[in-house]
Prior knowledge:
alpha/beta, Rossmann fold, 6-stranded parallel beta sheet, 12 helices, globular
Amino acid sequence: MTTSINGLKVAHFAAFGPGRSGQYATVRDLIFAERKFGIDAQFIDCAVCPKCLKNEGCDGKKDGNIKTQTMDWATNADMFIRHSAIPIELEGMGKPIILCLHGRPENSYLLEKYGQIPVYSFIREVAHDERYKTIVTFWKEHLFYFKHLIPEKPVAYVPSMVNLEQYSPVGPVRNYSSRAGNPNIMIADMWREDTTPFNILFAAVKFIEKYCKTGRIHLYGVSSNKRDPIHIIINQLAKSGFLGDVCTLMPNMSEQYRAADFLITPHVIATRVVREALACGLPFISGTGNKYTSFSGDPRDVEGFADVINNAWCIIKDNEEIKLSVRSILI
Length: 331
């Protein structure tokens, strides 16, 4: 096995899905970062192809400089990094495994509580599995939780990252055309079990009604399931003229960040959306306690959050220097 960092072969197991999840984007950027240090980091697609019923890594799927590798390549790796599932036959090879926990602790708890994914049961199995050497979280705020949930294993914090070349204030800009507003308000969070943009969406509506009737809300990450009740809300708000773009997941999200005037999010950590927005110089308004912005409020207080949006907009509008100052938070 390779013993030096330079040339170390590392297999990252995750679901290949450009533009479909924050986890994929984080894994992609982690691979890029490792390669800069001379590590031979590769993406192993752990999803199953519906056509050949085999691992999709055999197809050599591409996303820029990322190309999925085969399971055969993984068998010769020095180390496995588990983001999603690892095939049982590879997990049993005796390779050292690092488990990356991408989910928020409360969301992971709710996934198991409601019978979806048994995250916590799996974590406790890993606690006594010698193949797993270290647990990694990408958020310092989560260290406390996991150190208590998995005291048997070392838990490391790796700062969540974003590709500053791909996400920057300079580049193509989304043309809203007839859907443009003033301001253009962006919401791009996924609707998760523990945190949804439900209340901040209505806070943005309140802001437009109360302070700025020319504003428009642009929604990204909306469920494609037409039975999801979010579509009832969207249809009504669209009829009233509050909405601009309404999309599921989109490629080239950097173009959307450059077009918006600001982002609103209920989150209090540097989620993928927050990191991408900051990298593009997009100011954001968050839930109380987010240390990456000076604009925050209780997202459950629709009236109060609308006031926070207005206070932020009064500072942000016509401020050309704010994009550079926002991006500097990441650098």
